[in-house]
Amino acid sequence: MSNLTVISLGGSIISPDSVDQEFIKLFRKIVMEYLAEDTSRKLIIVTGGGAPARIYQNACREIIANPKSDDLDWIGVAATHLNGQLIKAVFYDACFDPLVTDPTADITFTGKILTAAGWKPGFSSDNDAVILAERFGAGRIVNLSNIKKVYTADPKKDPSAKPLDHIGWNAFRSMVGDIWVPGTNVPFDPIAAKRASEIGLQVITAEGRNLGNFRKILIEGSFEGTTIGPEL
Distance between CA 91 and CA 42 in Å, rounded? Predict the structure, then answer.
């Protein structure tokens, strides 16, 4: 497997209501220890929007009755850039290149970590993670959010929904659909899922605040989460 891993770091983990400083301190510690253990390891960290996106999108919806979907997406994109610049600054000693805001542009990757954020309307930063994984030959994406596992249905709506350890892309896509709605809360963006399924990429989705579990994922140990990938 490639020694490059892409981490899609949900904005709800970085900034659930405000910036979670303690989480980011511990996240940095685990990441730096992981990189120090093997000098060939590299990471791409792609940030989501979190509270800033939600607060500003909701404000727009309150001010005008039917805001344009693209306008809401651009607000979300701006929020991902704010979080991305924060994460880049936190990893100042391992990330030496500019924050990536267009995964298709010319990109330099000179450090151990490359940071990236949202690109444009039509999908979330999960899709940017998939594009970067394909472009740089990453073996997998680790998707950290506020969702512990993928369920057979939305557990908030269906009490009989069951958690899954593994699910194929076809089954996953049948659950999340093919349409992106700004601000939607799904385990992995439908547009990103389509692209990932087409290239046979593996995505591990797990609850981001459990940093001990995150460490196990990084070192390919036994972990709690759901692996989404080619049909088993």
Answer: 13
